[in-house]
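Note to self: keep these together.
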Amino acid sequence: MAWHCGGNTVRAALWLCLPLMLLKGCGGGSGSATGDPCHASGTGVNWAALAQRNCPQLSDYRLLDQQGMPQDPGVRFAPPVALFTDYALKERSVFVPPGQQMAFQAEAPFAFPEGSVLVKTFLLPASTEGALPHEALETRLLIFRQGRWLGLPYRWREDGSDADLRPGGALLPREIMRADESVAFTYRIPDANQCGVCHQHQGDDGQRRMQPIGLRARYLQDPLDPGGVPQMHDWAQRGLISGVPEQFDGLLRVPSAEATDITLAERARGYLDINCRHCHSDGGGGGLSGLRLGYEEDPGSLRYGVCKQPPGYDGGAAGLDYDIVPGDAPASVLPYRMAHTGARDRMPPLGRSLIHEEGVALVSDWINSLPAQDCSATP
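Structure:
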């Protein structure tokens, strides 16, 4: 089912795309004779269920109200650059149990108390330009339970009445308009194990654990809405996080994709940071590649891919040799793999079925703008 948003296309108002018949638990519900917390009566967030059970319906947790807004104490948030998922729009919120706080960290994801949950709903627009109507496809939860993060995918029903837990994921045939052409593709809801492919990170102790991606200081220094206060300061004022500095001087910041005062290089690096860094970082899933695509990296370095040969990859059908060949995007592995959908060449390997044409163009334009360099002559 598709939900219309009344013509509102502002990032901060995407919640209006959610169904108004949403979530049976918002006004209380039937009691449970079995004591199952998923079926408990009440209003507000069902913290007991979040702490104990993988509930069969999203409504069992009572996270969203009838307008699709997060229930108190949930707070909406957005990173400055969107991670691409088949042109889906995303509505994000974070919940911290009453009386608890996140703890600020300058580089790592914020530290969360037990029972916290991150909520992300994916809405497919009618076109690649984000046109109405928008269709809610899935909502993913990351729940911090018993000292670790757990990913749960929920698929929205066709009538919009609720979303059902799909631990095995789902394949959804869909179409989207690009210019005047309808493009058919298969939208993939990840299974619970695939959540760890992007969200897993190896710690200093050698153990791999799931962690949030977007809840970092580098992504939360801009206001959620124009004219507002920075998101981290808003959270501090609400008492949801401790330790946030009054000034952000010295903190790494990824600039907003909508900013008009940043360079092509900054825009491309921000895109690569949010779309690629979680794997291509020390301890990330793509760590063995040696490619590091965080905004903090030197974009002219071997670590960033300049004249770097990709281990374990043969260059594809084009026989490419280097991740980035300055001045020559067609000879570079990075945009080549971004522009493929087959499992052999596609990057990122999960999270999309379509090519992000605009992202490929951005990265290609940046590579082409670099002073030409003969990588075969580089030691």
